[in-house]
């Protein structure tokens, strides 16, 4: 059977490693091609958009894909909606692998916001030096906040022409350790963290560090997932695969 994994996350890479042990599967991973030096998973990989729902339907049909697992980032909402629609159109089983969102624990000072733009709206009243961890695609939403200073962490530099807020750019890729996050935030005198609620361990250290330092976190809620079967972790995704390989 042919499995297409929509990737771009550590979870997708981990799933691929486990699913590759199932001899009945031929697996293709798809990446969007956003990062300059992606962590390319082992095995067959294709890179680049499909061209909307229609393009994905064509791809699924041409490559005779039997199973589709969407293991993209929880904030990559567009591809997830496209995948759900395309799988339905082709009548193939479709699973979303989505790790649970982080939940606040005692000591956390979270300000939940619906969208990135709302984070930018509330910052001027409560922050001076912000650790902005929402990635290069979201910088422009903060560019008008000239009275604030931002430490902006991302994997690749912003595309030319992107409006960038005042501050310093830091290029790095997780996972990050608690000690490194504490050192970074203290060194730069950070008073507020802005984060997407990505879930998972790889980038959770900044949330722990904010808790230890008593700092508020402006936490951007996840976009809605399409209606679909959802696995919260790799074992659940593997169980789904096994069910569909041996119905
Ligand atoms: P998005 O807004 O949901 O998708 C925009 C377009 O990019 C899609 O319509 C699709 O183009 C293409 N695309 C996205 N993921 C793809 C994939 N795995 N394979 C082929 N095409 C893909 O996505 P995004 O937020 O820009 O994220 C892009 C990629 O980065 C995703 O694969 C995601 O897993 C990864 N990522 C995103 C974030 C984040 O915070 N958004 C964080 C970490 C990693 P077509 O319509 O042409 O098919």
In short, what is this structure?
The protein is an alpha/beta fold and 247 residues long. 30% of the residues lie in helices and 23% in strands. The model has no long low-confidence stretch (mean pLDDT 96).
Q: Which molecules are bound besides the chains? A: NADP nicotinamide-adenine-dinucleotide phosphate
Strand order of the largest sheet: 3-2-1-4-5-12
Q: How many helices in DSSP terms?
A: 7
Give helix and strand order, one letter per element, not per position.
Answer: EHEEHEHEEHEEEHEHEEH
**Fraction in helix:** 25-40%
Distance between the termini: 12 Å
Number of strands: 12
Poorly predicted runs of 5 or more residues: none
Shape: elongated
Rounded to an integer in angstroms, the radius of gyration calculated over CA atoms is 19 Å
Average predicted confidence as pLDDT: 96
**Largest β sheet strand count, sense and barrel closure:** 6 strands, parallel
Q: What structural class do helix, strand and pairing data support?
A: alpha/beta
């Amino acid at each position: 059977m042919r499995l297409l994994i929509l990737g771009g996350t550590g979870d997708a890479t981990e799933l691929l490693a486990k699913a590759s042990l199932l001899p009945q599967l031929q697996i293709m991973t798809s990446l969007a091609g956003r990062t300059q030096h992606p962590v390319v998973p082992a095995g067959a990989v294709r890179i680049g958009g499909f061209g909307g729902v229609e393009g994905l339907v064509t791809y699924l049909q041409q490559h005779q894909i039997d199973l589709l697992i969407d293991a993209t980032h929880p904030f990559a909402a567009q591809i997830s909606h496209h995948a759900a629609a395309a799988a339905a159109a082709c009548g193939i089983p479709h699973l979303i692998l989505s790790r649970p969102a982080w939940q606040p624990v005692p000591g956390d000072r979270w300000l939940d916001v619906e969208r990135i733009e709302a984070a930018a709206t509330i910052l001027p009243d409560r922050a001076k030096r912000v650790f902005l961890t929402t990635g290069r695609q979201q910088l422009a939403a903060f560019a008008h906040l000239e009275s604030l200073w931002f430490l902006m962490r991302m994997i690749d530099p912003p595309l030319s022409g992107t409006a960038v807020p005042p501050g310093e750019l830091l290029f790095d890729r997780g996972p990050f350790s608690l000690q490194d996050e504490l050192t970074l935030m203290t060194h730069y005198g950070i008073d507020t963290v802005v984060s997407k609620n990505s879930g998972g361990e790889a980038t959770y250290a900044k949330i722990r560090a904010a808790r230890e330092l008593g700092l508020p976190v402006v936490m951007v809620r996840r976009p809605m997932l399409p209606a679909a079967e959802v696995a919260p972790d790799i074992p659940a995704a593997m169980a789904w695969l096994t069910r569909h390989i041996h119905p």
